């Protein structure tokens, strides 16, 4: 049996780096330290039915084809389209993302990631008002108050609290849990709220008002007896904890970015953190979902200057969220081909956007069967980044971590990076008249 | 019943991300979590099929008692193709659709079947 220690879990943005994986004869036997989500991902490596060859739609079903044929089909699809969309990228390594962005530029398409439907609004707010953030190491060692707002890590980032906020002992927090206070603000009494010291139940869609209530009190104003479904005394109580802590941290989730107000909720929350810094050290961080959604924004920013929703159709990068982001492009029928890498828009986009996706030519690189592989015209299976392929990923606090390879992919499967390189070369070959 | 719909992640939804071709995917996601008091009030029992309708569509899902209550008049469907039959593509021009806080109506539909995702996609997108 091979024992791999310090393996990185390629599932959520917590990017835990202490997993011990036991592999025997090509099967994963155990993934120690991983949570249920990470464990399910490592164990899925043992699944029997994994596609090993590309499949192309023919009539009502799919037929097998070669990788060379699949590569050429994608290249031609992208070149034939006036404005192709290249979407996904959150579950692959930075090195593959980089080639994907180059490909988007080469074919004059739009490149966008799942960020546009998770923390895109946070990015917009950060561009407006700044981002006083820290790393998770600092949170672990210094924070004595952690707030989770619109975020339910017990379900989406199960080890976040045990590694960084609720439980761990840190340099200045030697007693662990006893030295830390946790506040949860949510529309439901979530499982995360169940282990918090204080829970404020905000009425749906009213987060902006609640942030304003905190800021009004901080700036010597007065508020009514109840704001956004929360009693004044609870708001005052929570605010007192915030003002008097030594190092406060606001972790915010898609409960804020997906609710009415969207990016405005975040810019108000950032402003609250700025106000709190008049009293104490306070910082904030988005709870990023997929393990490398943060990395894509980094790589795209190096290469184009912008973090998501970049349109290369005019030959230079343009960024205008609301116009160059996937859901609008699809819902308005403004793209004429879709190439998806490591994502599942057919499951995760609203119906209207998927209706258009189902009508236009589409191809997907994806190791598993998903609603998107079901709807697409061409599917190319790939090796699984972070388990069968090494590379770089960015944790939710923007710390780059090298994800590791612990086993070989089945014979004949290529990594996302290799497939994207083949497509890019083919595109250049076709453009040069070959 | 009029309600506000929230969609989002659950641990079960996350655990089946690599196994979407299994029945576990339907079991984990084609559900609607209700506040237990709302279930009593509207005579919905665990396992009943309900129809959730919004301005943008309708979907049949299985009623489940919420373990993260109270959340009166709020229903929760895990993110996925079922939820997205009724979420709103309106993005307020920032790229982000409205996945949370959607006004919906919910009706009991005991004799209706909850579709698997290939059936659902076929019905909605004709492929
Ligand atoms: S918390 Fe996230 S990164 Fe850590 S083991 Fe669980 S799924 Fe993996």
Task: Write a concise synopsis of the structure shown.
The complex is a heterodimer of chains A (434) and B (127). Chain A is of the alpha/beta class and 434 residues long.
Keywords for this entry:
heterodimer; A: 434 residues; alpha/beta; Rossmann fold; Dimethylsulfoxide Reductase, domain 2; nine-stranded mixed β-sheet; five-stranded parallel β-sheet; 21 strands; 37% helix; 21% strand; B: 127 residues; Barwin-like endoglucanases; six-stranded mixed β-sheet; 4 helices; 31% strand; globular; binds iron/sulfur cluster
Explain what the structure shows.
- The complex is a heterodimer of chains A (434) and B (127).
- The relative contact order of chain A is 0.19.
- In chain A, helix 2 (67-80) packs across helix 18 and helix 3 crosses helix 13.
- The model of chain A has no long low-confidence stretch (mean pLDDT 96).
- Chain A folds into three domains: 2-42, no CATH class; 51-118 and 291-431, Rossmann fold, CATH 3.40.50; 120-286, 3-Layer(aba) Sandwich (Dimethylsulfoxide Reductase, domain 2), CATH 3.40.228.10.
- The longest helix of chain A is centred in the C-terminal third of the chain and has 16 residues, at 416-431.
- In chain A, 37% of the residues lie in helices and 21% in strands.
- Chain A is of the alpha/beta class and 434 residues long.
- In chain A, strands 5-4-19-18-17-6-7-15-16 form a nine-stranded mixed β-sheet.
- The radius of gyration of chain A is 23 Å and the shape is globular.
- By secondary structure, chain B is an alpha/beta fold.
- Chain B has one domain (2-125): Barwin-like endoglucanases (Beta Barrel), CATH 2.40.40.20.
- Chain B has four helices and six strands.
- Chain B has helices spanning 11-15, 23-29, 36-41, 117-125, and strands at residues 2-8, 31-34, 49-54, 57-65, 74-78, 100-108.
- In chain B, strands 2-4-3-6-1-5 form a six-stranded mixed β-sheet.
- In chain B, strand 3 (49-54) and strand 4 (57-65) form a beta hairpin.
- Chain B is globular, with a radius of gyration of 14 Å.
- Chain B starts with a strand and ends with a helix.
- At the A-B interface, helix 1, helix 4, helix 6, helix 11 and helix 14 of A face strand 1, helix 1 and helix 4 of B.
- Iron/sulfur cluster binds next to helix 1 of chain A.
